[in-house]
User: Fold this.
Amino acid sequence: MIEVVDSETCTSCNICVNVCPTNVFDETDGVPVIARQDDCQTCFLCELYCPDDALFVAPHADGPQSIDLLALKQSGIFGSYRRAVGWTEETKEARGLDRSYLLFGN
Amino acid sequence: MTSGSARADRISGGNGFVEFDADVLVLGGGPAGTWAAISAAEHGARVVLADKGFCGTSGATAAAGTGVWYVDTDSAKREAAMANREAMGGYLQDRRWMARVLDRTYKNSNRLAEWGYPYPTDDSGKRQLNSLQGPEYMRLMRKRTKQAGVTILDQSPALELLVDDGGSVAGATGVRRQKQDNWIARAKSVVIATGGCAFLSKTLGSNVLTGDGYLMAAEIGADFSGMEFSNPYAIAPAFGTVTKTLFYGWATFTYEDGSVVPGASSKGGRSAIARALTEGPVYALLDKADTETRAAMRASQPNFFLPLDRTGIDPFTQRFPITLRLEGTIRGTGGLRITDDSCATSVAGLYAAGDAATRELICGGFTGGGSHNAAWAMSSGYWAGAGAADYAQQSSLKRASSVLRAGTVGLRSGRNRSIGPAALTKAVQNEVFPYDINYFREANRLHASLQRLDALWRDVSDAEAADSTNMLHARESAAMLATARWMYRSALARTETRGMHRREDFPRQDERQQHHITTGGLQEVWARSTVNATLSEAAE
Assistant:
């Protein structure tokens, strides 16, 4: 489930509020808040759409996790999914790397 | 239809409503809905598309990666593609529909390439069009939908359909959940592209998919086909959501003590996993993947590795606990019954596309994964959009003077307390999640479950309207309840094992039951077998 909107890097663009398919965030005067965490479906799409890599979705679907924000940030995990799918300038060649055609025959 | 204004008109505001006037209204903004909207616009219609969430991230495709049933025009290859799934699907497919879906999928995939979808090329330089990355695909589809002149309403779940005094569909109304107001869209035809129903099982990307479109369509008399094919379960890490069944083809499955689960495999051995899970934890280790395969997996499906990387598990060297998550009618093949080649339903002006519609026409009673469903979504969406546009053009130019709201459960005054969405959802999940009711089916257990579901329906069908904060979830839970009843009524009617529908009390396929099961109704749920004559006769 979504666990972190990092107020240090969030620019309050509210893209996450708009794109969340299950309407988990609420807009505020400052950074968006995780208003309905129970509705999070752990699809990771908010992370992909966050241009500032300010969001972290824990992979645990069934309940909130305790988060060590400092350790998380040091681990380089923020933005890692966006980089992996090629949605950053530096990694955009990854968009065309789908090798599923090698796997379907199995 | 006027050619001057290609965009649907926003008529007025005020009174807590925004109102739109369109030719075609599309409900749902996943692959089927966006293809339908683009197709309708290309056929001259003014189109509104309303999505419960965000068109571009909503639905089972956006969060995932999916194979596509894309086959070259070579007739031998197409023949083989059609033939090799017929036995698995229980011979309920229709060859003519399979051929036209292959043809339409070929055309639409090549359009995606023209639109700039970054298809990969293999080592021989050949472009490969049989896989789509969900986020990339749906971001492109949103862009093309907007470019086609479609008015998109995001975060705007529909709550009920509108009908005119002749019983034809006349639009829909719902809420704009981030603006705390309501929308109403008058339209001459409506495409239901709201996806299947996975009962909030958290299988990847599916919690938007609660059968809302089924309920709305049933409220104006639409019926369903193949709802007994509604019990596929997908493998996921026990704690996570990412269901990529394909990759578990390289897995070894073990019990707690490390011994191998006999007969367990991703394909053709998932029931052994289900049985093992009823006794204790089951683990997977992807030890059969060689170095090259591992690299291809990483490149192809970054999302598969998210739950694993983030918990410090190397799936190729460390086993991890797995579970099975119900995929309901998302990978099940049942849905709204299609009555002609334009994907019309049994209600005038109402069309169905994607997982909201039955996919028996090309899959019969079984699909292995996204492949056929993705092909169906882009094909049926394309046809439904065109059909809805043609219908709108042919229907009377004068708009119906009065329209009625067709919604029922959860929306009107009633004698019982209003629906508690969380409690009702849990009660429905308790009937559809357990393997010994839904996966391994048997008459007594199905009957007992259906009785409990019917009792729940009697209670909520006379419930007081939910308040505005609970209304959407109340309608979702009621839709799931209705869906479960159609599933089990159909499952009882099919007294054999066919496709994914397996009956412990009828373990064999019965050649006399090579037919479709139609179901419907809300107060009283009915099911009957039907010969598929209308479909075979319909002309291309």
